[in-house]
Amino acid sequence: MSESPSLSMDVFIQAKQDLTLYAPAAMMSGEFNNTDFDPAMYAQKAIYYPPSMVRASRKRQAEYFVGRYLADQAMSHFGVNQFKLLADAKRCPQWPKTLVGSITHTDNYAACITAEKSEISALGIDAQDILNEERAERLQSRIIDSAESRLISESSLSAALGLSLCFSAKESIYKGLYPQIQQYFGFNAAKLHTIDSDNNILSFRFDPALHVLHNDRNILDIRYHIDDQRVLTCLMLHVKKR
Predict the structure, then answer these.
(1) How much of the chain, in percent, has pLDDT values that exceed 70?
(2) Architecture of 9-120 per CATH?
(3) Cα gap 216→201, rounded to integer Å
(4) Predicted confidence band at 199 (pLDDT cuts at 50, 70, 90)?
(5) Which CATH code fits 125-237?
(6) Alpha-carbon distance 202 to 204, whole Å?
(7) With 50 as the cut, is the pLDDT of residue 118 above it?
(8) How is the chain split into domains, by residue range?
């Protein structure tokens, strides 16, 4: 791929760094526009371009690039530069030995969060566009059960927003725990337990049969953020200090 001097990352993506909200992790995020993407950006920013991307759609190429571009910047906060971020057979990123991390994207937004393994044992992040009422009603039975639905109805969250958060939170749990568990688990492995709207925290009970966490409990706290278009959720398990 040739590099074009006309390529402008500032036009394609508006990236920003957050070192406080998710400390001690570092998060990079940004809005991007697929129509302003050029595959030559891979070479321009020295981002690994896997063979599978050659036949992918321009949209998929853009999403993959943004995730790795943000990952490159997030890892640099911990002194890891120009790391070749490969993926395994399940498309899970293979992070440096010293780091944990997670990547997420929607059609026009992406984020990456990384942290040192000495501080964080599991890390998962997920962004989802907020479901409209019709789609939420159609998907509800696949994501939550009646007890979880009742918890949402008793909270200050609308049914569609509550389901959007649960959908995203369960994806964050999967992304964060799969590297340890190394086996597929579905939405029913994590059940909504409490909703703390004041502190933006959802708590989930995790299936004890899959319990491999570095703590003595099966309650997972998921932090969340809501804006006009999407929800963002994050699972972060701190290393248990002796």
Answers:
(1) 94
(2) Alpha-Beta Complex (3.90)
(3) 20
(4) very high
(5) 3.90.470.20
(6) 7
(7) yes
(8) 9-120, 125-237
